[in-house]
Amino acid sequence: MIVLAFSVSTLKAIQEDEMSGAAGVRIRMAAMVLAGVVAGVWGSGCHSARMAVPQELVVRSEQLTCSGRGGFNEDFKFGAYQVTDVHRGWTRRSAWGLWRFERADTQQCYEFSLAVPGGGRWNGQAATGLQSADLKTEAWGGELTIGIVSNQNLVVRLGRGAGEAWTMVLNQRSDEDLMTGYLSSGKENYEVAGTHKLAGTPMPLADASGYVLAKNNVPVAAVDVINDGAVWLSQGLSGSERDGLAAAAAALLLFQDLSAEH
What we know:
By secondary structure, the protein is α+β, with helices and mostly antiparallel strands. The chain has helices at residues 2-15, 21-44, 55-58, 239-254, and strands at 61-67, 76-78, 81-88, 92-98, 101-115, 121-139, 142-160, 164-172, 180-184, 189-195, 210-215, 218-224, 230-234. It has two domains: 2-44, no CATH class; 55-90 and 113-124 and 155-260. It is built from four helices and 13 strands. Strands 1-2-3-5-6-7-8-9-10-11-12-13 form a twelve-stranded antiparallel barrel. Helix 1 (2-15) crosses helix 2. The longest helix is centred in the N-terminal third of the chain and has 24 residues, at 21-44.
């Protein structure tokens, strides 16, 4: 509120031409910056942050907003899809060091079931791992940790009975800041790419805001993983393809970034 009061009073003073010279120019510039900050804060307070979905997918897809996500048992739903029976293993971490060098491996597994429209059920098993290496050195009278290597991966197996199996493999290397990879049904392949983009603002999110799944470079699904979360599925998908992509979306919504805990 202090910023708001200052910017309004400053703008009023400018309108009344009460300032001139270099000081006036500086105050005018400050007023414009503050007004922009106030407008941004005011606008961001009106709605929750959400992933920026490719427009070509938005116009030909159905948005399924998640409900119940973040609960104790981790069950949630999006549209007619219901995620249940979520079981997450303990996060296991092993580390060893030599002199000022430290290497650490972190692993976590989780599984879930997805009830799909029509009474079918998909099962998912996922394993994620993080390999990191740090160098510790002295600086400014204290200890400085420098990250040398940080590789994270996610492998997911999705299946409906014994006749249909999908695989998703994502990886994030130390020279990258997002998970990328592929999803395969055995017959069709999809590219999976993380994104930092947020809707309505050029400012990116530090972590992944979501994932875009594309076939032949054409987006067919998107997964917003921030706040409540949401899933977009293209209207041109077959029933089996739609359910498989929904199962992959469920796995991404349950994924926990191990590098955030490192």
